[in-house]
Amino acid sequence: xxxxxxxxxxxxxxxxxxxxxxxxxxxxxxxxxxxxxxxxxxxxxxxxxxxxxxxxxxxxxxxxxxxxxxxxxxxxxxxxxxxxxxxxxxxxxxxxxxxxxxxxxxxxxxxxxxxxxxxxxxxxxxxxxxxxxxxxxxxxxxxxxxx
Length: 147
Description:
The protein is of the alpha+beta class and about 150 residues long. It has helices at about 10-25, 30-50, 85-95, 110-115, and strands at about 1-5, 50-55, 60-65, 70-75, 100-105, 120-125, 135-140.
């Protein structure tokens, strides 16, 4: 496994992973919504984010995108989910930040459980205005050890 900053040539692959993952994880949202967001992901969101990819050999199999301390996206290729790569990427980011916040759809129980298991706490419930779906604002804070 290799985690590294993404290359501009990998944006199409990143968007593909995001799209397929979004369809699977968010089956409660119309797939046309995700289709309509692909160009913005490619031209706006990925370029403005600090994005790292995890690869197996030459194949990009997942990515994480950060905007400051906000985790904007964490997706693993649907064929490689459950292999620990999401935790690898999350741990990689945790080593670089004091706090991390993210939003996750309440109905995406698998993701909510993943973040809870990895030290995040639910801070509040919000509503995603674009989809009308309830979300959780979650937060992780690095533990400071006082001696």
